[in-house]
């Protein structure tokens, strides 16, 4: 056994166990945050469908079509359309025909939608301070950086995976 001390796992195995435990802890924490309630019993964080829709519209940096929204939210175009219509009815998004394709509809945030996004980003301060009580700013900054890097890698991986999938489909249809 190639290790630092007799009876101890090799470094690669130790690192794998630690990395797996780290990722597992992130997932469990995300699940707990998703279920967390503020002191008034309302959800402490915003993970509902409309909140996800608003964040997806903002993330795309423009006015996505129903198809784009479906892809961003990992749902069907029809489901994205249903959610967008409900959000439009609530006044947080507006729908308009795409200038280059009159069959396609685009979805944009309204001022009310932008305001809702801002409120989502600001969980109740008393709840946040209670949750993070005793944690120093420096480790929080380090952890935030690590989580940001992991999220960017996951997003890049997802983009690369979609591109590879499209290339396979394209190659398969070219052979026909």
Order of adjacent strands in the largest pleated sheet: 1-2
- Main sheet, how many strands, which sense, barrel? 2 strands, antiparallel
Task: Give the N-terminus to C-terminus distance in angstroms.
Answer: 53 Å
Return residue spans where pLDDT drops below 50 for at least 5 consecutive residues. Answer: none
What is the annotated CATH architecture of the largest domain?
Answer: Orthogonal Bundle
SSE topology string: HHHHEEHHH
What percent of the residues sit in helical stretches (DSSP H or I)? 55-70%
Beta content comes to 5-15%
Overall pLDDT confidence: 89
Number of strands: 2
Structural class by sheet pairing and helices: mainly alpha
Structure description:
The chain has 176 residues and is mainly alpha-helical. The protein is built from seven helices and two strands. It has helices at residues 11-35, 49-60, 66-73, 77-90, 111-121, 125-131, 137-175, and strands at 93-98, 101-109. It has a two-stranded antiparallel ribbon. A hairpin with a 2-residue loop joins β1 (93-98) and β2 (101-109). The mean pLDDT is 89.
């Amino acid at each position: 056994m190639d290790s630092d001390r007799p009876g101890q796992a090799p470094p690669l195995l130790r690192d794998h166990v630690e990395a797996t435990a780290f990722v597992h802890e992130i997932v469990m924490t995300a699940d707990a945050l998703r279920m967390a309630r503020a002191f008034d019993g309302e959800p402490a964080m915003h993970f509902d469908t409309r909140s996800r829709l608003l964040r997806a519209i903002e993330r795309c940096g423009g006015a996505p079509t129903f198809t784009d929204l479906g892809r961003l939210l990992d749902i069907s175009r029809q489901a994205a359309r249903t959610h967008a219509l409900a959000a439009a009815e609530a006044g947080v998004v507006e729908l308009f025909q795409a200038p280059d394709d009159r069959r396609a509809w685009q979805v944009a945030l309204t001022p009310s939608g932008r305001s809702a996004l801002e409120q989502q980003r600001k969980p109740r301060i008393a709840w946040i301070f209670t949750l993070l009580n005793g944690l120093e700013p420096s480790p929080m900054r380090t952890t935030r950086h690590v989580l940001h890097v992991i999220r960017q890698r996951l997003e890049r991986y997802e983009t690369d995976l979609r591109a590879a999938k499209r290339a396979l489909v394209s190659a398969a249809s070219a052979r026909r």
